[in-house]
């Protein structure tokens, strides 16, 4: 989001990016009797509210965890080309097994107190946006598929007041197994594994220590571009009613061999994040669209 944003618009943007981070299945699916064959019927549009809470680190490689909670109003539109759903607002074009999307990601701000960054400037909100190729590699069953995601996103940091700064780009290929009926149950979920590579701008955002912020135990450090880390994620969802869904998430991140693992700001070679929440659909269109899984 390179343009300046008002505070109200900024809040809505952060909500959209937070929804993006929860994965494809955050919004409660409306499934008809064809779901067992891999086809789903969903409203053309729906609107609702939800919330997510979890324990997350301040930044990749931080050993400081914070409990965060965020309300998530959302709007979903499932058009053939233009879509706004749990992947964000985007233009989608499908070519055979490949879907081309414009999607985003991001992270919340951190105040840099009580940890490795004490005395340094706080980390602003980080917004990411860019194209993504989603490739369906195989469909082992009618309710599952193996996907390869190839996103390239530009990164921008902002305090939603006066600062807006480019932070380079991120390439984050990801292999995901998506299952609509885990062991034949009413739980759906996904398992994913991926790696991340970042340009020097994003690496400096996380790991740079300028000389004026050096102190005992935190020497000056010049971050470099390259491998950022690997991630493994698990997500499980259960639709309790046609309009109410709960979800659980677990992420494990490893920074072994990362380009800036020697930065004094990297205090751990791995970390775990957990999150849980709900999505409640309050209004839906009467028109349904049929989608293959």
Anisotropy-based shape? globular
* CATH homologous group name: Nucleoside-specific channel-forming protein, Tsx-like
Low-confidence stretches: 1-37, 86-90
- Tell me the strand percentage band: over 45%
Q: What is the helix fraction of residues, given as a range?
A: under 10%
| CATH fold annotation | Outer membrane phospholipase (ompla), Chain C
Structural features, described:
With 293 residues, the protein is mainly beta. The protein has a single domain (7-292), classed as Nucleoside-specific channel-forming protein, Tsx-like (Outer membrane phospholipase (ompla), Chain C). It contains 2 helices and 17 strands. The protein has a 15-stranded antiparallel sheet that branches. The longest helix has 15 residues, at 7-21. The two termini are 31 Å apart. Residues 1-37 and 86-90 have low confidence and may be disordered.
How would you concisely characterize the structure shown here?
By secondary structure, the chain is mainly beta. The chain contains two helices and 17 strands. β7 and β8 form a beta hairpin.
Short descriptors:
293 residues, mainly beta, Outer membrane phospholipase (ompla), Chain C, 17 strands, globular
Show the helix and strand layout:
Blueprint: H1 7-21, E1 39-43, E2 45-57, E3 65-71, E4 74-78, E5 82-85, E6 88-91, E7 93-95, E8 98-107, E9 125-138, E10 144-158, E11 164-171, E12 174-179, E13 187-198, H2 200-207, E14 226-241, E15 244-254, E16 270-284, E17 288-292
Antiparallel strand pairs: 1-17, 2-3, 2-4, 2-16, 4-5, 5-6, 7-8, 8-9, 9-10, 10-11, 10-12, 11-13, 12-13, 13-14, 14-15, 15-16
